[in-house]
Amino acid sequence: MKIAMIGTGYVGLVSGAGFAESGHYVVCVDKNADKIALLADGIMPIYELGLDALVARNAQAGRLSFTTDLSTAVRDADAVFIAVGTPSRGNDGHADLSDVFDIAAEIAHALTGYAVIVTKSTVPVGTSRKIEEIIRSILPDGEFDVASNPEFLREGTAIEDFRHPDRVVVGCDTERARKVLLEIYQPHHHARETPMIFTTRETSELIKYAANAFLATKITFINEMADICEKVGGDVKEVARGMGLDRRIGRAFLNAGPGFGGSCFPKDTLALLKTSQDVGAPTHIVETVVNVNAARKLAMAKRIEAAFGGVKGKTVAVLGLTFKPDTDDMRDAPSLVIIPHLQSCGARIQAYDPQGGKEARSRLDLDICKTADDALRGADGVVILTEWKEFQAIDLANMKTLLKRALMVDLRNIYPPEKMAAAGFTYWSIGRPSISNTPDLASQSGTNGKQGR
Predict the structure, then answer these.
(1) What is the three-state SS of 219-258?
(2) Is 329 left (phi over 0), alpha (psi -120 to 50) or beta?
(3) SS3 call for 372
(4) 247, exposed or middle or buried, with CB in 10 Å at 0-12, 13-18, 19+?
(5) Which of 181-184's residues contact partners 24+ apart within 8 Å by CB, and which partners?
(6) Most buried pick, 57, 127, 263, 321, via CB within 10 A?
(7) How far apart are CA 302 and CA 297, in angstroms?
(8) What pLDDT does residue 446 have?
(9) Domains, in order of start, for the chain
């Protein structure tokens, strides 16, 4: 099959390269000429493990190419995927669909024969029908179908998720469109027996939002359980383990922390909330998730203040800036709330992230260090904001010599409290008893449970 993939962000680039790997011929389109030039030279605009090799292999095989010319890419395509961003619009929380609709119009002008126009972007219910209306208004007698095919890729494991998806969801109204999408996904459906769900376009669009909202709810739920653990002396990691062994619940997304971020959960929960309000079907659970998550990031910043006994005039080492490990994505990362708050309280920040430094420089005013040791050196304590594996392997004895004071606030619970106690650290974590090895801190109750346990 010949595929045009409009948009070369996380979704478009991974999906385009993935389809090419499956044997299809894919042209990735982006209006950003600089990005296309970099891709043509094998330089990735994003960090995703294994993506550079996947792109290079399929480009060399002649199955994957890049262009700024949408018309040429669409003209001979059997399917045209729309994979552009749908960020929150202004201050009202609705998804901004301006790029989606603009591209729909461009596609209409470029179509010369039958093609299936597929929304890969995360879009509110009814968007596919609106795209159909736009194209039909320009091409009244055109042969085309519009389908919905939401993505379920996790940043950091996107290639593996594309190769081995839990399911493929397709919303379409005609048998002709169904056959095209089935052929595109044939390697997954037949070789790997991946379940394919064919449904209406509205249902398909809602599945994506419902899935993300439910996962965000799990994160928010365990964060609130962590707060209870701190009050009663419980251990949230054991609570999560005990819950997760129930097959009806599952262990995934039950990791307490500073709140969810990234390109999906914040905007998608907000967009679903706005849609529910517009149609008169309130989603009180989703509304609570949005509000609780927003409040949590600031609460974590204040927790750091308490652990440091105030941060005015102090240097805080921050390890991890991205919203999760194995990505350079900073969108809605907790660091974007926590760090500015600490700075407003008089802290000096020394930060390090294995991949997010470049993006952080454009979003935050702080010192970005080249190594973790550079960030730790001379700091009054350290904060773990992202659970990169390399942070779990840090030599605690060396860390202690670099810091002015052996103080750690671990917002990702990557260390066992007993290990930190043995290393001589004052250690604050989430939903677990904290360790105090400093007499003056032992009297501070803060919000992180009992001290010195």
Answers:
(1) HHHHHHHHHHHHHHCCCHHHHHHHHHCCCCCCCCCCCCCC
(2) beta
(3) helix
(4) exposed
(5) 181/79, 181/116, 181/118, 181/147, 181/149, 183/1, 184/1, 184/3, 184/19, 184/22, 184/24, 184/79
(6) 321
(7) 9
(8) 38
(9) 2-199 (3.40.50.720), 200-453 (3.40.50.720)
CB 266 within 8 A of CB 272: no
Q: Which residues are catalytic?
A: 264
Strands (E), 226-355: 315-319, 348-352
Amino acid, res. 290? V
For residue 435, give the DSSP letter.
Answer: B
User: Confidence class of residue 92 from pLDDT cuts 50, 70 and 90?
Assistant: confident
pTM for the structure as a whole: 0.91
* Residue 340, both tokens: 């500015």
The answer to whether 191 touches 409, Cβ cutoff 8 Å, is no
d(CA 359, CA 363) in angstroms, rounded, equals 7
Whole-number Å distance between alpha carbons of 379 and 415: 20
pLDDT tens-place string over residues 329-381: 999 999 999 999 999 999 999 999 999 999 999 999 998 999 999 999 999 99
